[in-house]
Structures are given as C-alpha cells and as structure tokens.
Amino acid sequence: MKKGKATFVLFLLLFMMVFLNADQMVMSPNMGEIEAEFGITKADIGLIQGSFTIVGALISLLWGFFADKYNRKLLLLLSVLVGEIPCFLSAFVQTFPQLFVARALTGIGVGALFPVVFSYAGDAFKESQRAKVNSFLSTAISLGAIVGMVIAGFTGASLGWRIPFIIVSLPNILLALLFFLFAEEPKRGAAEVAVGDLVNKGVNYIGKVRLSDYKNLFKVKTNLILFIQGILGTIPWGAIPYYLVNFFETSKNLSKESATMIFIFFGVGNVLGIFFGGLIGGLLYKKKPSYMPLFSGIMTIIGTFVALLALNFPPVEGAGGFVMLGALGMVAAASASMTGPNMKTMLMNVNPPENRGRIFSIFNLTDSLGTGFGQFFAGTLATAVGSLGVAMNVSALFWLPCGLVLLTAALVFPKDIASLNKKMKEAALTMEKEK
Fold first, then answer.
1. Between the ranges 75-79, 236-240, 247-251, 331-335, where is the mean pLDDT highest?
2. What's residue 287's pLDDT?
3. CB 229 within 8 A of CB 405
4. First vs last Cα of the chain: how many Å apart?
5. Cα–Cα distance, 158 to 206 (Å, whole number)
6. Higher pLDDT, 152 or 78
7. Which of 102, 133, 110 is nearest to 281 (CA)?
8. How many Å apart are CA 245 and CA 267, to the nearest integer?
C-alpha cells in the first residue's frame, strides 16, 4: 500500500479497535440499573462478563488459524459484524438469558478480531515500522475500555442503560465496511527480510499452514517466555483495576467519586504507558534488539514497587494527599503497561507470516486466563484473610516475577530473530528456484 493509503487504513484499524473494546466496559457503569430491571445479582453480572472473556479467548484460537489461512479483510469484517450486531441488539433484550447470549456473542467478535488485526499488521508493515504500529494498536485497545466507561457513564445516567450499546456498536459497522472497501489484503511475507522483494514481484510465498505446526510455536523460546510473563503480568491487571475503586473507598478515606477519579488517573497512566512504551521500545530495538525485553522487564519491576507505594499510601487527607495518590497510581500504571506493545512486536519479529494469527490467538488466551485468574485470586484471598488490601498487594507482586522473566528474553530474543531471518533467506532461495 502507498503511504497515504496505509495511514488511512491504520486509522480505520485504530478506531475499530477502540469501539470494539469499548463494548467490554459498556455495562460496568450501569450495573445497578441492569440488576434492578432483570432482578439479577452481581454474581449474574460476573457470569456475563466471564462468558464474554472466556468465549472470546477460546474463539480467538480458531480465528487465529483462519487468519493464517484465509483472507484477513473478510475475516476482519466478519469479526466486527459478529461483535457489533449482538452489541447493538443488547439494547433491545427483554430477559436475562437474552442479555447473556448477546454479550457472549459480542465477546466472540472481540476475541476473533485480536489475532486477525495483528496478523494483518505483521504483513502490512515492515519490521522497522511494527513497534510504532503496535504502540498505536495497543493504545487503541486500552483507550477503548475508557471510552466504553465514559460513554456508558454519561449517557446511561440520562438516557438509560440501553442507549450506550447502540452508541458504541453502530460506528464500527460503518468503519468495518470502509476498511473492507479501501484496505488491501497484504501478501503474506511481503514485509519480511529476504522474501519480501520476491513476494512484491509476484512470487508466491511458500509458507504453509498446518494444524500440526501448533507444536512448533512452542519451540520458539521467545514465545514460551512471553506466554509465561503474559500470565504472570495480567494477574495484577485483572485484580487491581477490578477492585481499585472499592479498595480506595474503604481503605483510603475516599468517596466513591474521588476513588473513581483515582481509577481515571490509573487509566490515563495505562494509556500513556502503552503509547510511549511502544515508541521507546521501538527506538531501543533499532539500537539493539535485546534492549527491548530489557527495557520492558525493568519498567515492569519498577511498576511493581510504585504500585505497592500507591496501594499502601496512608488514608488521604486533603487535596495534597489526593494528588500524590493519583500521581503514584498514574506512574505505577504507566510503568507496568509499557511492556504490552513491545510483547506484540517481539512476537511478530520471531514468528513467520504463516504463524502470526495463531501465535496472537494463544497470546490472547494466556492474557485472558491471567486476567480472569487475577480477579478470582484477589477476591478469594480477600475473603480468606479478611483484607482486600492484602489481596491487592499480593496481586501487585506478580509483576515482579513477570519482570524477571522478561529480562531472560534478552538472552534468546536476538537468536530467535536471527533464526527467523535465516528461515526467510532459505525460503527466498526456494522461491527463486520455483518462480
């Protein structure tokens, strides 16, 4: 794609990711109204959210295989429609089972889109561009959750809990149709070392997709390390945001409104950390690839200790204490979130084009498992010891081994890049002979 068209397509992808991820949080601010209308409890709401996450993660595995084999433009359009049509229909449900089914189907769309987008980006953008692109895409994912909360919070109060589902779903249907009309399906291998020039000249890339290749994904050491750190690192991301407002309300002498403001500081820090973490990681990668996992590991470890400072901050007295707590929360979230976009770049740069959809589907699954376990772990521990503060602190400590595991990636990441480049050069020789 030409530069101008590539930029337009990237913006379409970004806005699609924002609106589709807004779907995840659109229920949260209006839970009380939904519970009252259907006569359900928070356990029922939890069941809906759990099905949204789990169903989406499982379908991601299947869609990852499809992304490696079939046309990603069409898959992306189908993913958005599968997610947004049920989201739109959520505004018109009349019973709890109808709401449950609509939200589960929306989760399928969110889970399906993840591997398709990153498989598409891996072939649409060259190695030198991927860190920046992943920074933008990862920021869009995080920003989507905030957008969903804001839309639902502001419009739900005046227009009711149903209208937000319509507001977040309709734009994406239009965006997906525009993407399908204007985007080009990138040729597999077109952005790779050695084979890219041949593919762009019309030579078919020889990489094939086989179910038996799943086991080979786990032979790449960088993949294994990133899966492990993903589970460890998402445990705090599952626990801390989920219980943060309640924790600060009960432990730090804050009103619900003030505790929510701290949550917003935390969310802003998360968005900033993802955006700048990806950009800085990309600059370090150009200097030396091993610097990317080193930077990610160090920032995650720093985030651990700043998060502990925020969680153990004394009860807030006055505006000064409130600002200090908000600043600590923002820095903690920013530090710990810098890893996210860099992990996606690392996965792209050690896996061949025919494996990227599947590798991102597995990565999405491990992230979902870690997030879900984090919420369960913190709630169970808080009940067992009678202290949400203890549960929050223990959850934050999982960022420490996550950071240490990331540091070990610096030893294998450059070798796995070299291994992929060697494979691409061998593929180029074969393609030269067969053209």
1. 331-335
2. 95
3. yes
4. 23
5. 57
6. 78
7. 133
8. 12
Q: Is the dihedral of CA 298, 304, 305, 307 positive or negative?
A: positive
Residue 407 to residue 126: CA distance in whole angstroms? 25
Name, in order, each residue with C-beta under 8 angstroms of 22's C-beta and a sequence gap of 6 or more: 144, 145, 147, 148, 151, 168
- Tokens coding 17: 């990711």
Give the span between the Cα atoms of 399 and 173, in whole angstroms. 37
330-356: average pLDDT: 92
pLDDT of residue 46: 66
**Residue 330's closest CA among 380, 249, 239, 267?**
267
Model pLDDT for residues 83-94, shown as the tens digit of each residue? 899 999 999 999
pLDDT of residue 418: 93
In single-letter form, the type of residue at position 414 comes to: P
Name the nearest CA neighbour of 233 among 103, 335, 106: 335
Q: In this structure, are residues 13 and 117 in contact, taking their beta carbons and an 8 Å threshold? A: yes
| Continuous segment of H or E residues that includes residue 110 | helix 96-124
Distance (Å, whole) CA 394 – CA 62 = 34
Average pLDDT, the chain: 86
What are the angstrom distances between the C-alpha of 46 and each of 28, 63, 240?
Answer: 10, 25, 16
State the amino acid at position 367 in one-letter form: D
Residue whose token pair is 């989760």: 107
Confidence at residue 424, expressed as pLDDT on a 0 to 100 scale: 84
Q: What is the pLDDT of residue 10?
A: 86
The residue written with tokens 């992808």 in the block is 13
218 close to 391: Cβ distance less than 8 angstroms: no
Rounded average pLDDT over 190-200: 76
Q: Which two tokens stand for residue 134?
A: 């992943």
Cβ-based neighbour number of residue 214 at 10 Å? 15
Q: Which of 135, 122, 148 is nearest to 14 (CA)?
A: 135
